[in-house]
Design a protein that fits this description.
Chain A is mainly α and about 350 residues long. Chain A is built from 14 helices and 2 strands; from the N terminus they run ααααααββαααααααα. The longest helix of chain A is centred in the N-terminal third of the chain and has 22 residues, at about 45-65. In chain B, the strands form 4 sheets. Chain B has a 6-stranded mixed beta sheet. In chain B, strands 2-8-7-4 form a 4-stranded antiparallel beta sheet, with no helix packed on it. Chain B has a 4-stranded parallel beta sheet with strand order 11-10-9-12, with helices on both faces. The chains are: A mainly alpha (about 350), B alpha/beta (about 450). At the A-B interface, helix 1 of A face helix 8, strand 15, strand 16, helix 12 and helix 13 of B.
Chain lengths: ~350, ~450
């Protein structure tokens, strides 16, 4: 048996490659959002599902249109990042949000939040939150109109506002209610921890059930697709600052636990602040970024005109990410005195 | 043994599948002599060897063919008895044509060694032993092929406290050192004695990854108490066998940036090299053959072979039953740091630790995505660089900035490229960047020299 003459392919080492690639990571992040999506469907019914679809459609369509011609001509739907942005954006919107607004938010998130910077990996700010910030600026009423959660018995009840015609004034929904944060801020009325954890409270689609978000986050951390330092640091930052302020004036400020569990804190800590593109790559940088995110949320919640601050806190810290990375470069092997005692 | 279950290690690194089961149980088998041997004068780092024979000369197995071309160089010996057919340019595994001594093997010869006698190591002085080791043609057999005697020369004002014997063999697929550690224990022990004497070292360690438990046990049991050598089981992790990583794992210290292990009072020697030196002092056999793992999904009969230096890749593959139809990449060395070969006509060198045949299933071209800053590469880099940022800088050619981020400390282990989910050829770009920076530096020096010369001329 002779070896024959195989056609040899030339390349440089390494010749082995880990099986995980970027689309795999995106896919797993989307899987990890399934618990939160199920909670959204359970509490807010078919309106929630439609809103997710509208937002994803806005994102994917925009990605496809802009990517189909120069200067960014390169198909990128398959990397899954546009779908992910759409799902994440929808999870930050109130359940009765008109679909056309969700769609528009998706268009803006991808077009302005991501592709304007050069596409995946190049954006400075979290695209989903850019989309949400845009919607908050344009439709302040719609984005703060909270439908109360219901159970499966009303699953097929579509909110009237959901199907509102573009640029028509949305019909105010029959059953609206205040979020725990608004109740706390304006009425100093606390919400039971149990409701905050399970999700039986008013809020955005995917933010109400801390439990389901943590479930998804735990899966990602287990698969090592998530930098665990960021959720831990952000929640810790919020808890510490919240608890400290609570101790100065318990009647006026909610405690640390409330801050950890209410509003978009959990969704932000697990799925928004952890966006690798817009958060620091260095371990120390991740800690700094995360703790400051958490602290900022509490500061915005308590000292600004808004009841909630997760979105602006993360967007603000996104802006600091390059600076944090620069200041926290890892110590190169063989430099510095930390471990050399010879 | 403490730490036997988990083993010592360094921070970061990667865990590729090892694929060592293909050859781990294959005993070392002596490959028959081929018809022709191509002995390149560039077998090692440093100056090439200088031929001392002429075409037509009859040479004996183990006879000197070429002398060292300087201090950082070693001589070359005939790996078989035969006739010098030519001294001409032949294909070199590095990818170019290079001067080589071609020997036509005399199949009628008994292939006895030219000088077949043990060499004393207890009476000669340290300097004499260094010269002796250089005369044996020894270079690092782990792959780098750096002349051994240079590493064993302690510069003025420096001293060596520890000797580390590197049996980590962290490259996937390769089981060369594994088999040597199982089958040549006595030579390893003698080699350690010689090295410790030459360096004046007080203590030595053998580091072996715990995926080779039988080798750990065999060697640990055989180590004589007077040798002052300790077995250190290591975690199975790439690049555990890199000098710096081994030093960190065993001694919990770092080699200062830009310095050599000797600056941390350590010398590391590959266990195969140590065994070869043991053979040299036991039987008088210089470095004329080496153990090579021939493996991979593409080879029909994976083997551990003892091969005469200069044997062609073609002959070796044929001896192992040939390659499958799907084979389309053949490497010298392991899959993490080895080099792809372009022709079956290339001979093995002193530094060829393995021959790896990969098929189209492994050689698929993967789509490159944008960096999503996932920080996998930072968590993998054993020298704690920021490959993500270095990669972005390399893409736009900002080499000076890369140097500021310690690019020159990169040892090109490839862990970053291995983990990158976006399939960015990080280490490949770093190699280019380093080469360009070195060139620039050389040009700068040249310019300064010329200016200095001009000044002298004017005055």
């Amino acid at each position: 048996m002779t070896p024959g003459t195989p056609r040899l392919v030339l390349a440089t080492s390494p010749f082995l490659k880990r099986a995980v690639d970027t689309p795999t990571i995106m896919r797993h992040v989307i899987y990890s959002l399934v618990p939160a999506l199920l909670a959204a469907a359970y509490f807010f019914g078919v309106s929630a599902i439609l809103l997710v679809l509208a937002s994803v459609a806005g994102c994917v369509l925009t990605e496809w249109v802009i990517r189909s011609r120069p200067p960014l001509a390169q198909s990128s739907i398959a990397d899954g990042s546009a779908i992910l942005t759409g799902v994440l954006l929808a999870l930050t919107l109130p359940p009765g949000m008109p679909l056309w607004m969700g769609f528009l938010g998706g268009v803006f998130a991808i077009g302005f939040g991501k592709l304007l910077f050069g596409g995946l990996g190049h954006n400075v700010f979290n695209p989903s939150l850019v989309g949400r910030a845009f919607l908050q600026a344009c439709f302040p009423v719609a984005i703060t109109t909270w439908a109360a959660p219901h159970g499966l018995e009303h699953f097929f009840t579509v909110h009237q506002s959901t199907l509102a015609f573009p640029f028509a004034i949305p019909v105010p929904d029959a059953v609206t209610t205040a979020t725990p944060l608004a109740k706390m801020k304006f009425d100093a009325a606390p919400t039971a921890v149990r409701d905050l954890f399970i999700g039986t409270r008013a809020g955005s689609l995917g933010e109400t059930s801390s439990m389901m978000i943590l479930l998804g986050g735990a899966y990602l951390a287990y698969r090592r697709f998530l930098n665990w330092r960021i959720p831990v640091g952000m929640l810790a930052g919020a808890f510490i600052v919240g608890q400290m302020l609570h101790m100065t004036n318990p009647a006026r400020y909610a405690d640390g636990l409330f801050h950890m569990l209410s509003g978009g804190m959990m969704l932000g800590a697990v799925f928004m602040a952890t966006d690798p593109v817009t958060s620091p790559v260095t371990p120390l940088g991740a800690w700094i970024f995360a703790v400051l995110c958490g602290a900022l949320v509490v500061v915005i919640r308590l000292f600004s005109g808004l009841p909630e601050g997760v979105m602006y806190a993360i967007l603000l810290m996104n802006g600091f990410t390059p600076l944090i990375d620069r200041w926290t470069q890892p110590r190169t092997y063989g430099t510095g005195k930390r471990r050399n005692h010879g | 043994m403490i730490g036997l279950r988990h083993g010592k290690s360094f921070r970061h690194g990667v865990h590729p599948e090892t694929f060592k089961e293909l050859t781990a149980e294959r005993e070392i088998e002596r490959m028959p002599f081929p018809d022709e041997l191509v002995l390149h004068l560039r077998q090692h780092l440093g100056a090439p060897s200088r031929p001392v024979v002429r075409p037509g000369d009859r040479v004996f197995r183990g006879q000197l063919l070429a002398e060292a071309g300087g201090f950082v160089s070693v001589p070359l010996h005939a790996s078989a008895t035969g006739r010098v057919k030519a001294i001409e340019k032949r294909r070199h595994p590095a990818g170019n044509m290079s001067e080589a001594i071609v020997i036509e093997v005399d199949h009628a010869s008994a292939q006895a060694l030219y000088e077949d006698a043990p060499r004393p190591w207890e009476t000669p002085t340290r300097e004499e032993l260094v010269r002796e080791i250089q005369a044996g043609g020894f270079v690092g057999l782990g792959g780098a092929a750096f002349p051994t005697h240079v590493k064993l020369t302690v510069p003025e004002g420096k001293q060596v406290e520890w000797v580390l014997i590197n049996g980590a063999e962290c490259e996937p697929y390769l089981t060369t050192d594994h088999r040597i550690m199982l089958e040549n224990v006595d030579s390893i022990i003698l080699g350690i004695r010689v090295i410790m004497k030459v360096l004046g070292a007080k203590k030595s360690f053998i580091g072996i990854e715990i995926n080779k438990m039988n080798a750990i046990r065999a060697l640990a049991d055989a180590l004589p108490p007077d040798l002052n050598c300790t077995m250190v089981p290591l975690q199975t992790k790439y690049p555990q066998g890199a000098e710096k990583m081994l030093i960190t794992a065993v001694l919990s210290r770092e080699v200062p940036s830009g310095k050599l292990p000797i600056d941390a009072h350590v010398v590391v020697q590959n266990v195969g090299t140590v065994a070869g030196m043991g053979d040299y002092f036991r039987y008088g056999q210089p470095l004329i053959e080496r153990v090579v793992t021939v493996t991979g999904p593409g080879i029909r009969r994976p083997s551990t072979l003892l091969i005469p230096l200069g044997t062609s890749l073609h002959d070796i593959l044929e001896h192992c039953g040939g390659v499958t139809e799907r084979t389309n990449q053949i490497l010298f060395g392991g899959p993490m740091m080895g080099a792809a070969q372009y022709h079956l006509d290339v001979p093995i060198l002193k530094g060829t630790s393995g021959i790896l045949c990969l098929t189209d299933a492994q050689v698929a071209v993967r789509k490159e995505y944008a960096c999503i800053r996932c920080s996998s590469c930072l968590d993998a880099c054993p020298v704690f660089l920021n490959p993500s940022q270095l990669g972005s800088l390399a893409r736009v050619g900002m080499y000076a900035e890369m140097q500021g981020l310690h690019l020159m400390d990169c040892m090109e282990c490839g862990s970053c490229s291995y983990v990158c989910p976006s399939n960015i050829p990080l280490v490949q770009r770093f190699r280019v960047a380093k080469a360009i920076l070195r060139e620039e530096e050389a040009r700068e020096k040249e310019k300064q020299k010329a200016e200095a010369a001009a000044k002298v001329a004017v005055s």
